[in-house]
Specification:
mainly alpha, Arp2/3 complex 21 kDa subunit ARPC3
């Protein structure tokens, strides 16, 4: 067997392993995100019953829904990773009887598309890029709800919901996601640095 054939076989094997790991990351984050988002959705719905809070205040929790999609988009550096995660996450929420019903699949899918577009345009390295991506993706759910279910809602309330959701996405998805990624890479580098010493 020639050297080129051997190198090609090794490269192909590494690509298959990498693809399996990336798919596993997407599946795990989709499942975890879907399981967390269902009770968060019900919690946001309960905020509507608080008289002193204006309609749409539940959007303050919307950034939590996007965190998992953002992490997948950053960790899996492939086009469409966010969209795939959003679709799978929406299916998980739908199977767990989300308060939003079938709409949750559309909302989650659109959030995934926005993550992919934002990361492609802004990059994955800077925290500011992740914050902006989180805000844009989170607030996209307001647009979907407005176009599908809330068309008769007054414009000031829609704007309020959009702003609240954007800020929530910046904080809970973008900022928190950036901290999670940074901590993960730090621990990984620390483990790699300690590895050779542990074997001597």
């Amino acid at each position: 067997m020639s050297l080129e054939t051997t190198q090609s076989a090794e490269l192909s094997s590494r690509q298959r392993v990498s693809s399996r790991r990336e798919l596993l990351v997407i599946i795990m984050l989709s499942a975890l995100g879907g399981a967390v988002s269902v009770p968060i959705g019900y919690a946001g719905n309960l905020l509507k019953s608080v008289p002193i809070l204006p309609f749409g205040t539940g959007q303050a929790l919307s950034g939590i829904h996007v965190l998992w999609i953002l992490l997948a988009g950053v960790l899996v550096k492939r086009a469409g990773a966010g969209t795939m995660t959003g679709i799978l996450k929406g299916l998980v929420e739908l199977s767990l009887f989300s308060v939003h019903g079938f709409t949750v699949l559309l909302v989650s899918s659109v959030e995934g598309v926005f993550i992919d577009l934002a990361l492609a345009a802004l990059g994955r390295r800077k925290a500011a890029s992740l914050v902006a991506a989180g805000g844009l993706s989170s607030s996209s759910n307001v647009i979907v709800l407005w176009l599908t279910l809330l068309q008769d809602l007054p414009s000031p309330i829609v704007v309020y919901m959009f702003v609240v959701s954007f800020v929530s996405g910046c904080l809970f998805a973008g900022y928190l996601g950036a901290r999670v990624v940074r901590t993960g890479w730090f621990l990984l580098e620390k483990k790699n640095d300690a590895g050779p010493q542990g074997r001597t």
